[in-house]
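Case 329 in the screening queue. Each case pairs one protein sequence with one candidate compound; here the compound is nicotinamide-adenine-dinucleotide. For every case the pipeline is the same: read the inputs, emit a complex structure as tokens, and attach any notable structural observations.

Predict complex for case 329.
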Amino acid sequence: MKLTNEKVVVCGGGGFIGGHLVKALLDNGVNVVRAVDVKPLDEWYQKTKDVENLSLDLRDKANCYKATDGIQVVFQLAADMGGMGFIENNKALCMLSVLTNTHMLMAAKDSGVERFFYSSSACVYNGDKQKTPDVVALKEEDAYPALPEDGYGWEKLFSERMCRHFEEDFGLLTRVARYHNVYGPLGTYDGGREKAPAAMCRKVIQAKASGKHEIEIWGDGHQTRSFMYIDDCTKGTQAILESDIDEPINLGSSELVTINQLVDIVEEIAGIKLKRTYKLDAPKGVNGRNSDNTKILDHLGWEPSIRLKDGMAKTYEWIESQMLAPVTK
Ligand code: NAD
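Case 329 output:
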């Protein structure tokens, strides 16, 4: 199907990906009528006029009915989450997102929603397959036997299965994407919930501004990851929602880098070289992870392809503009 006149809600619309998704869908002519987030409106990264922006806690079932009222398509991105520093230290909070996902599915079913998108994560994958930096890219079936990231990953895997059973038992059509590390402008870069790409930009900008040419890296810097630029994420999200893919599918870049190589890229953008120190006891997640894109290529003839150095240049520029902006009262 192609989204045409269906009324759409984006949950988590005040967040990083949700904010971009509202904009991208509207740019594509999609009828986004509502965005919902627990944060007060003045804390949303992006707010789009002509859309009803609601500040509601979606753990509360009654609020999920307000979110889905008159809606045909739900993008459910709301979750209590952050980078490794947050999810390793807040497992209970991460798992409480199960309330949001459960109540959103129930409300969607009762409100006659036709399609429901759920943003899962690469953190659902079995940890045993991610022990070394020279990884074999993760295929969708590598989520089982289940040994996901403790807390956050278990909740994501459970909610994936709930989507599946709501489709099988109640006929609510669900689509699930497993996002792999998404980055870009207009997201979190400090405060403890930021992820590696934004954190590296912040640290390099701080080092440059302060003249203290040092950077602390979490782990030994050899851990590998792939990072997907936000524009690929919003494009893939819409395509997966519109597709007939009825199993969870990877949505990630397959450009694998070490964390040291990520720092190289940021240093090059900033035109600076920093002395590196390694904090070996910091939260660093699995040793290696990459996205196997065979399935998405088969289904969509497309995969995320924005180069890391291009996406990081835009991300760096935005974070720098925020950090160096004069404080206004
Ligand atoms: P984000 O934190 O910027 O956005 C999530 C939004 O959900 C936040 O604005 C938050 O306020 C909102 N939220 C949290 N609890 C809520 C509640 N009870 N009711 C209503 N809103 C609530 O994070 P993001 O990076 O934009 O992530 C969006 C989705 O994508 C999440 O489900 C996340 O788990 C998933 N994901 C993200 C990444 C990534 O790299 N960013 C990777 C894998 C999966």
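Case 329 observations:
- The chain has two domains: 8-183+227-251, 196-225+256-323.
- The domain at 8-183+227-251 is CATH 3.40.50.720 (Rossmann fold).
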